[in-house]
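Why run this: before we spend reagent on co-expression, it is cheaper to look at a predicted model of the complex and decide which construct boundaries make sense. The entries below are exactly what would go into the expression plan.
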Amino acid sequence: MKKLINDPNNVVEEMMKGMAAAHHDVLKHVPDTAVLTRVERTAGKVGIVSGGGSGHEPSHAGFVGKGMLDAAVCGPVFTSPGPDQVLEGIKAADSGAGVLLVIKNYSGDVMNFEMAMELAEMETITVDKVIVNDDVAVEDSTYTTGRRGIAGTVFVHKIAGAKAETGAPLAEVKASAEKAIRNVRSMGMALSACTIPAAGKPGFEMAENEMEIGMGIHGEPGIERTLLKTADEVAEELISKILQDGVHKSGDEVAVMINGLGSTPLMELYILNGKVSDILEEKGITVYKTFVGEYMTAIEMAGCSVSLLKLDDELKELLDAPAHTTAFRM
Amino acid sequence: MGLTTKHIQLWLQKTNEKIQENKTYLTELDQAIGDGDHGINMARGFEEAIKKTAESDYESPSDLLKDWAMTLISKVGGASGPLFGTAILKMSMSVKGKAEINYAELTTAFEEALAGILQRGHAAENQKTLVDVWSPIVRFLQENTAFDSAAFTNQAKEAMEQTKDMQAEKGRAAYLKERSIGHIDPGSASSFYLLQSLSEVIEKEGVTV
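The model came back. Tokens follow.
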């Protein structure tokens, strides 16, 4: 393992310290917790809280700030924070109008965030939740764990955060977030593995000439392991699988997110996007806005994900609303 | 004499020893079919539980189990924190007010623990989760009237090993579908260490349950 760290068991704490020091105008660390919260609070606004395992930076603390999240809970690397820490995030975000939790659909995250909701209700804080499951690489099923939440979650942060900023009540903020979840689909691919610092070695092996289509942001298996393909071929596969889900059709307007997983240069992400934009044009889908960069990474994994968010007038307005966070500005 | 506070403390210590010894093994099991951190998370949580429970003198098994549970819930994280934490917490609630735990009470405590796991995890049997160890062990306790250490450990071990041939339907291993077959479920392996430790404490300390 070759990493610029001090102690593999202390990476999250040290990262939070560095983040708070760098962006003290936007966010601050709540002492003795795993929570980063907004410096400037909007009183009487629904609080938006997200979080989960660390290792996905800038997710989620990079989206703390005006117009997006009020608090992010930073769990251990790839591991959901416990309910006590999520409760701290809820408390930091609560200003009397209730709190909405944006949870990515993983067993651990859902269990811990739900336990935190129960604890918050005992402290008479009104809390509701939405669960993001945008990854079309996984079959959707209520019987199993179902689809994973990946980079499309960042669009949900943006939409929920913008809606909350309008002063809308919790139920309306939740409804907008759920609309975003219904309208967003994503799929990823990986070129290389990643190493959890405390594990010291990569979570899986991937040969130099291999890639995996549909791989999750913790290295969970995807749809198929294949020989390395070109960026154009990868763009075709990802978009075709997303469109097969039937949410995005000819005549629709979409926001596109081309997300790097940690070790993929912007050059490659832009090459991919060139093809993505061609394909969408051919399919009669209008691209309203495109976001290219690192939004939800998998430590140092190489690879990308593509997310499409179908827009209507409400979602366009909320997407365009101001956001002042360290990793997303409008 | 039934299970006392001292025995619960020994149970926690013994389990912690096994988790620490097998930290790499548990993580490797999780690397095969999950996200590769189960051993790390369990080792961290149990180490904290040892530290936390060393701070107090507990008056009852219930009080000690409660601190053990709360530490797991807050320090293990992931899915294992709520699941193992809920199991131990339900045991704590089940034996509240008792200085000693007899066989019938132990059985009830395990029934409550399993109910808590099922409620929290929304899983059923044969989905390759720790339910596949806890359900058979509860049935085993129900079918017997006195604690047989060797048989208890064997039952837990057999149940754990049977998860190897199952296809995962819950948790991260579910994404692997048929590729999850052929690997022991990491949560079931940790459950086995927990149960084996209880069995060893009961045998070594001459506990009559």
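The mean pLDDT of chain A is 95. The radius of gyration of chain A is 19 Å. Bring this page to Monday's planning discussion.
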